Amino acid sequence: MTNALESSQQEDQVLLLDSVPHPADDAAEPFIVASDRRVILAYPIAESDFERFGPFDPDDDPFCTVLFPDTTFHRLGPPGEHDMQIHPLASQGLAAFSVHEVINSSLVEELSAVSSPELTRRHFVITFQQSTFECVASDYTVVGVYGAAEIASREAFALVR
Prior knowledge:
- This protein has one domain (11-160).
- It contains four helices and nine strands.
- By secondary structure, the protein is of the alpha+beta class.
- The strands form two sheets. It has a five-stranded antiparallel sheet with strand order 1-6-7-8-5, covered by helices on one side. A four-stranded antiparallel sheet has the order 2-3-4-9, covered by helices on one side.
- Strand 2 (31-34) and strand 3 form a beta hairpin.
C-alpha cells in the first residue's frame, strides 16, 4: 500500500525558462510591485542577455519587468546564491541567477486545497544574488526590458493600477 501511495504522489520538476531574461549577478536588487491578484517583478538582467533583449546604450543598466497574473502566492527572500543548497528545490536543479518553472509543484498542490479550483496555477522561481523569488500564478509575461531601474519601476507601478 505504501508503494502505491508513494508512486501516486507528484514530484517537483524544475525547468529553466529561457524566454525570460536571466538575472544579473551583481548587487542590484530585484523589487516587487503587487496588488491583490497581480505581481510585477523587476530586476536587472544579465549582461549575457543584453544582445538578445537589447539593444542598449553603453551607460544603460537594463532591467526587465515580468507580470504574474492571478497570483495566489508570492515571496522574495532567502536563500541567495551562496546558500541555494538549502532551498527545497535545489536537489531538483534549481540554479543561481536563473528563471525556472516547477512542474508538478507540491506548492501548487498545497495551495489548490485552499483557493479557487477554476484557475490554472503555475509555480515560478527566479534566483538572485541575495534572494529567491517564488510565485504561484496563472502565467507570466515579460512586459518589457528597459534601460534603467527607474523606467522599469514606473512601468511596474502602472501595471498594478
